[in-house]
Amino acid sequence: MEKAVFLDKDGTLIKDVPYNVDPARVKFYPDVFAALRLLQKRGYKLIIVSNQSGIAKRYFTVDDLEIALSELRDQLKSEHIFIDEIYYCPHGDITDEPLCNCRKPLPGMLLRAAEEHHIDLSQSWMIGDILNDVAAGRAAGCKTILVDRTGEERILHRIADPKFTPDFIVDDFHEINQIIALKKRHYEGFSIK
């Protein structure tokens, strides 16, 4: 079985521009590259899982999104990072249509990836910037890291349902490799912030 790091896209890897499919506006946070290279070197598959309700809302098409995702892959390749797969949920918000099984906080995208890539979810991680990412990772059986660049989600998680509680909270990607490496040694020296 393989191990993976599941990554949210908007607000986690790239700057969050709502409903963006313009390749020129795909801008990575600079701290992600070194972390992703090291995770890749440690044998983790890198898989992006992203809610894309703009498709259901007709703000953009699947073809538009694929162009933006191609730019994302190209920028990562230029940094010697190779994404194994990108999954996205094209469905709308709960209020727009019946809930699908792939829209985070549900774990459908992670479960599909696990089946298609022979991934052991108990040895895998979900990294995202909002509590719905955490909930999807927990529901799939992954360990979770909340990247809270603004501090807002850190406040929300204290009052949220336990299913939204991350294993770790970090300010950026600088600590992520250390946390994942130390997980094998029972979280030595680390605790939730």
Tell me briefly what this model is.
The chain has 193 residues and is α/β, with parallel strands linked by helices. It is built from six helices and six strands, in the order βαβαβαβαβαβα. The protein has a domain at 7-123 and 134-150: HAD superfamily/HAD-like (Rossmann fold), CATH 3.40.50.1000.
Task: Report on the architecture of this protein.
This protein has a domain at 7-123 and 134-150: Rossmann fold, CATH 3.40.50.1000. The chain is 32% helix and 16% strand. The chain has 6 helices and 6 strands; from the N terminus they run E-H-E-H-E-H-E-H-E-H-E-H. It has helices at residues 32-41, 62-78, 108-117, 131-140, 152-157, 176-183, and strands at residues 3-7, 44-51, 85-89, 125-128, 143-147, 168-170. It has a 6-stranded parallel sheet, with helices on both faces. It comes from Sphingobacterium thalpophilum. One of its GO terms (molecular function) is phosphatase activity.
